Amino acid sequence: MTPDNEDSFKKPLAIAYFNVDYTLNPKGTNYWRNRVLKVAKDVKDKLNFAIASKSEFPRELESFGDREKNEDVLVTVKNYAGSKFVMPDKFSVDNFKQFVADYLDGKIEPYIKSEDVPADNDGPVKVLVGKNFDEIVNDPEKDVLIEFYAPWCGHCKSLEPKYNELGEKFKDVKSIVIAKMDATANDSPPQYEVSGFPTLYWAPKNGKDKPEKYQGGREVSDFVDFIKRKASDPVELPEDGKKSQKDDEAL
pTM of the prediction? Predict the structure, then answer.
């Protein structure tokens, strides 16, 4: 499997990453490939298999931490939903066979790349990490606006004070959550496709499985108008009451 053809492989897919090189090291490549095949042949009707070169998938191997440098073979399984399951033990035929059996029996939790959950997350803009994403974003009582950002992104830095102001405006609206996530340090569900920064999504109460990518302007007023228009429940901000009072006085 290569980055060019990985999308053509059917899921669920077990992938063994090692130093694949049929030109300079065909013997070593076939050594590990044959050990993968020993397991694959017994469950080929339940699970698909592939081998891939470590050097071509550096981001995929981030989930293994230091193991990437110290172990010859690393294994993951990817399912239909895009979740990833990481084999925790050092590769051997027996360990691989047990990992596959445990995956097929539903005994393994999907891997989620995540920073630590913030100890204090009571600010107007909620901080999302991989481990608290589901709890906050998929709350059935909340509409959620999410900014996916990168710490080094200039556009994200420019947006930050406006986004914080937006959070302040909606902090007392119980049905609305303004949130942000460092997308370089945390995994998010596959329906949130992030190809550039910042990327924003709207996840309404009744549409968590199909969030809407925000395509509007990036001034505070643009976000406010969007949220009021899209909110599942009517939204009134404190400033709206002040405006109405001024209008009445003008009359």
Answer: 0.73
